[in-house]
Structure formats: structure tokens, C-alpha cells
Specification:
- This protein is α+β, with helices and mostly antiparallel strands.
- The protein has a single domain, classed as Chloramphenicol acetyltransferase-like domain (Chloramphenicol Acetyltransferase, 2-Layer Sandwich), CATH 3.30.559.10.
- Helix content is 26%, strand content 15%.
- It contains 6 helices and 7 strands; from the N terminus they run E-H-E-H-E-E-E-E-E-H-H-H-H.
- It has a 4-stranded mixed sheet, covered by helices on one side. It has a 3-stranded antiparallel sheet with strand order 1-4-3, with no helix packed on it.
- Helix 2 packs across helix 3.
- The protein is globular and about 55 Å long.
- The N and C termini lie far apart (46 Å).
Length: 214
């Protein structure tokens, strides 16, 4: 699929460089987004949707490699396979010196899960991928509904645009004095034991949250 050229690999962007060196079983640097549907998930339809989605986001097929001086992303011929969730969330996705995909898609009852190693993309990229995946799933799952063709990205967006390092594009070196802001709320209490993961779920009104964010 890919030619043996320099186009097979790319550097990590500025924000992603810290994650490969600091990931471990205790702190996997993996985050999860999910979508709950009204009906139980149909695995074959979800796999078809993933196959369609990955064509638009080929950079998600990259594997992480370690060079002499730095980590880099390399294109691969690996393909993601949808699985039913049977483990705890956010387990290690990046394994040193192993060619493995840095994301996975699972399902449980009526929920579609997307887990991503943070060096692959940030929350914005992951949310775009998940929205595209869910949209394609609904089209595959309910063909009789004739859902509209909705795009979540710019029509002229290229793969190169997806790989753009926003830090180098928008960062300005000049110093600007900023007002001192109050510290964000921080959780306190005893730390969890090595290798343990606690999950806190909450529900909030989207309308109220957006009002607060403004």
C-alpha cells in the first residue's frame, strides 16, 4: 500500500513528544471518547463503518517507532478490528519496540468506544474521528433511514492538513503579559496503588455547561 520512501514516516508534533517516553502501565497516556446509541451495537456494521472512516484518516494507521535520537510515526499496513469490550478502559496501547496501532474501537451493549494513545492525536482529532465513525455506523446500521451525507471536516482538507503541527503554525515567540488567573480545581486524597485506574462518571446538562464555558 505504501511506497518505501520518506513519505512513510513523520515526526511527532511538539505536544506529542513527551508521551512515548512517559507512558507506562500506571499512566498509559491513553484517553477514551465514547458514544451511547439507542440500540445495541451491531458489530459487523461497526466494522464496516470503521473501514470507511479509516480511509479518511489514514494517519490513524501509523505505528510509533524509536529512532536513534527521536520517536517518529511510520505508516503501516495494519488494520483495526472491532472487538467487544472485555477489559478495563484505557489500557496500554503503545508497547515499546512493537508495531501496534495506537488506537482501538470497541463496543459494549449500546456504546461505541474509541481509545487513543495521546501521541497519535489530541482530543480534537479524536472527537472528529469518533463523530465520523458514528455517522458512518448509523448509515451502515440503518440504510433504510437514508441519512443525509454530513461531513465533519472541511471538504478540501487533505491528509497533510490533518498532520499539520499546530504549535509550529500558530506559536508566536513574543512574550505577552497575561493576567493572573485562579488555579483550576484539583482533586485531593490518597493516591491509587500502582497500576490501578479509577473511573469517575458524571452527567451534566450540555446547555448549562456551554453557558458556564462562555
Amino acid at each position: 500500500m505504501f511506497s518505501l520512501s520518506r513519505d512513510r514516516w513523520r515526526k511527532l508534533d511538539n505536544a506529542a513528544k513527551i508521551f512515548p517516553a512517559t507512558s507506562s502501565h500506571r499512566d498509559t497516556r491513553v484517553f477514551r471518547f465514547y458514544c451511547e446509541c439507542c440500540d445495541p451495537i451491531e458489530p459487523d456494521a461497526l466494522q464496516d463503518a470503521l473501514d470507511i472512516t479509516i480511509k479518511k484518516y489514514p494517519m490513524f494507521l501509523s505505528v510509533l517507532r524509536k529512532g536513534v535520537f527521536w520517536f517518529y510515526m511510520e505508516q503501516s499496513n495494519l488494520r483495526p478490528v472491532v472487538e467487544e469490550e472485555d477489559t478495563q478502559p484505557c489500557l496500554l496501547l503503545y508497547h515499546h519496540d512493537k508495531k501496534t496501532l495506537l488506537f482501538k474501537v470497541t463496543y459494549y451493549k449500546n456504546r461505541i468506544n474509541l481509545e487513543v494513545f495521546h501521541a497519535l492525536t489530541d482530543g480534537t482529532g479524536a472527537s472528529q474521528f469518533l463523530r465520523e465513525l458514528v455517522r458512518n455506523y448509523l448509515v451502515c446500521r440503518y440504510p433504510q433511514a437514508k441519512l443525509p451525507d454530513v461531513s465533519f471536516t472541511e471538504p478540501d482538507m487533505t491528509v497533510q492538513d490533518q498532520e499539520t503541527d499546530g504549535f509550529t503554525k500558530y506559536y508566536k515567540k513574543e512574550f505577552k503579559k497575561t493576567e493572573k488567573k485562579p488555579k483550576a480545581f484539583q482533586l485531593t486524597g490518597p493516591k491509587t496503588a500502582h497500576g490501578e485506574l479509577n473511573i469517575t462518571e458524571g452527567r451534566v446538562s450540555c446547555k448549562a455547561l456551554l453557558a458556564k464555558a462562555k
